[in-house]
Design goal:
Blueprint (H helix, E strand, L loop, with lengths): L3 E6 L5 H10 L3 E6 L4 H7 L3 E4 L25 E4 L1 H9 L3 E17 L11 E2 L7 E15 L5 E5 L7 E4 L4 E4 L11 H12 L8 H16 L3 E6 L3 H14 L3 E7 L7 H13 L2 E6 L1 H7 L6 H20 L5 E5 L4 H7 L16 H6 L3 E3 L7 H10 L4 H4 L19 H20 L8 E15 L2 E14 L7 E2 L4 H14 L3 E6 L13
Parallel strand pairs: 1-2, 1-3, 3-4, 4-10, 11-12, 11-14, 12-13, 14-15, 17-19
Antiparallel strand pairs: 5-7, 5-8, 6-7, 8-9, 9-10, 16-17, 17-18
């Protein structure tokens, strides 16, 4: 039976990171909203509970408070930041506004080498050989005194109680954030909680996931047929390969060429799935159909909706040609699932290419979402375990509307071809310089302006290409990449010399926020 850790979400920006850290320790975890019913929590049967941080104060009128019964389950609990303050408040300690708010790096002095902090930090030469380590703080409240039966186990200059413990009940709490990379020993703290305190075993691996998911798909599908939309991206490719592994010829993949794909995209997808995995795949060239629909449209959101709606129509037409289809496989990931039941409530919008409700209803299909328990980094690990080539697994994210939102202004076949050629050069040079795997995303953008130039002895008035390259961990924030000048020079020279209709290349040095990664 799989051992599980429950993460209760109190609104922290780091909640997903907590669950990911637990899974990196090879222990399965899920996130529930703070107000999940005690019945749901008991049915989940966790070996431990982690209470996340959050923006609230425990004294706020609408402060998120969980059922007190979670502390009566007889399992360990770990409170982080707001989670610590909540535990102190509920058990009779005192939480108050900090004299000085504490944000950023802090030096933690360990007062009690408990199970949670065992092996953490390095010895100080003074202060009775106590241990210290660097942690990341982000709080405006602090613990003034511990509840009965709890004792302080660490402090900082600004927080006299930066960690506390009730060893008998196996309740622990931290004022700092062990889940962020700015707390160097944070991963070891999670290991201590999982293995020393919760007594979990590290059995959550992609190999075990494949075995479980394969059986579930086989039991759900039986002898019926499944259809799956393929985009060429990591999520849809891994979904298709996972489902094909389970049911083989019962799966048919549909790839729609919408006319706004990267150079060689359709051929690459077909080769990977048909020749590498021997899968049934229908490749539909609907490029003219999509480009006709996009005529005269310049608004980015209208572009997205137009492409999304047309994709569903084309997919629907192709899926109806397959007799006996009863299931639709889709690459929904765990962050999408969390968003729909999050602390902040359901997501206001759903990505167009995932919104296939009409298709499900019309064809009476049921969903298969084999990746719905996985984060993006886990999907890549799963793909590797399934034998998918690194070129696919490590691909940079590509937007559903494709080049349509990188062609700023009206989308035409000619403008897409200009961008496609420029984008291919950017990717070639970035890969040749061994920079590709260190970047989150790299691409070209065709601007809706022209500039004066000189080629030979003639004046030109041609298009401008912007090059975008960013570094990021999850796409939520991003910093522009410091590409070496000689690489940028080569990219610029090649685009101007090889792409007819371009006479100027610029480099985007904007970070997210305030900018976004994509231009539209």
């Amino acid at each position: 039976m799989q051992e599980k850790i429950l993460v209760l979400d109190f609104g922290s920006q780091y909640t997903q990171l907590i669950a990911r850290r637990v899974r990196e320790c090879k222990v399965y975890s899920e996130i529930f909203p703070f107000n999940a019913s005690i019945e749901k929590i008991e049915n989940f049967n966790p070996k431990g509970i982690i209470l996340s941080g959050g923006p609230s104060s425990v004294y706020d009128a609408n402060a998120p408070i969980p059922s007190i019964k979670i502390f009566e389950l007889g399992i360990p609990a770990l409170g982080i930041c707001y989670g610590m303050q909540l535990m102190a408040h509920l058990f009779g300690g005192k939480v108050a506004k900090a004299v000085k708010r504490e944000y950023g790096r802090a030096e933690l002095i360990i007062d009690d080498d408990s199970d949670l902090l065992k092996g953490i930090g390095e010895k100080l030469k003074t202060q009775n050989s106590k241990l210290k380590t660097v942690v990341w703080m982000s709080h405006g409240d602090r613990i003034e005194y511990c509840p009965p039966d709890f004792k302080p186990i660490a402090h900082t200059a600004n927080s006299p109680i930066a960690a506390m413990a009730n060893k008998r009940r196996r309740f622990y709490a931290l004022q700092f954030h062990p889940e962020v990379v700015h707390t160097p020993m944070g991963f070891d703290i999670f290991k201590n909680f999982l293995f020393k305190i919760c007594r979990c075993k590290p059995t959550w691996t992609m190999k075990s996931f494949i075995e479980t998911a394969t059986k579930e798909i086989q039991e759900k599908v039986g002898n019926k047929k499944v259809v799956c939309g393929i985009s060429g991206g990591v999520d849809s490719t891994v979904t298709a390969v996972m489902v094909h592994r389970a049911i083989g010829e019962q799966l048919t993949c549909i790839f729609v060429d919408n006319g706004v794909l990267r150079a060689g995209e359709a051929k690459k997808v077909e080769e990977t799935l048909r020749r590498h995995f021997y899968m049934n795949i229908n490749c539909v060239d609907a490029s003219e159909r999509f480009l006709n629909k996009l005529k005269g449209i310049t608004d980015p959101e209208v572009k997205r909706k137009t492409i999304g709606n047309e994709f569903i129509k084309v997919f629907e037409e192709e899926a109806e040609k397959i007799k006996g289809v009863r299931f639709l496989a889709q690459g929904t990931l765990y962050p999408d699932v969390i968003e729909s039941v999050s602390f902040r409530g359901p997501s206001a919008t759903i990505k167009s290419h995932h919104n296939v409700g009409g298709l499900l209803k019309k064809m009476n299909l049921k969903l298969i979402e084999p990746l719905r328990e996985l984060f993006k980094d886990e999907v890549r690990l799963l793909g590797k375990e399934l034998g998918i080539p690194d070129e696919i697994i490590n691909r940079h994210p590509f937007p559903g509307p494709g080049l349509a939102i990188r062609v700023i202004g009206e989308v035409t076949g000619e403008r897409c071809n200009i961008l496609r050629k420029a984008d291919a050069i950017v990717l070639e040079e970035i890969k040749d310089a061994a920079l590709y795997t260190n970047l989150w995303q790299t691409f070209a953008v065709l601007l809706p302006v022209k500039s004066v130039g000189v080629m030979g002895d003639e004046r030109t008035y041609e298009n401008v290409i912007a090059v975008r390259a960013v570094k990021s961990l999850d796409g939520m924030t991003a910093d522009w990449a410091r590409i070496p000048y000689d690489v940028l020079e080569k990219i610029s020279n090649r685009i101007i010399n090889e792409v007819k209709g371009v006479n100027r290349v610029v480099y985007d040095i904007s970070s997210k926020p305030p900018s976004t990664i994509e231009w539209e």
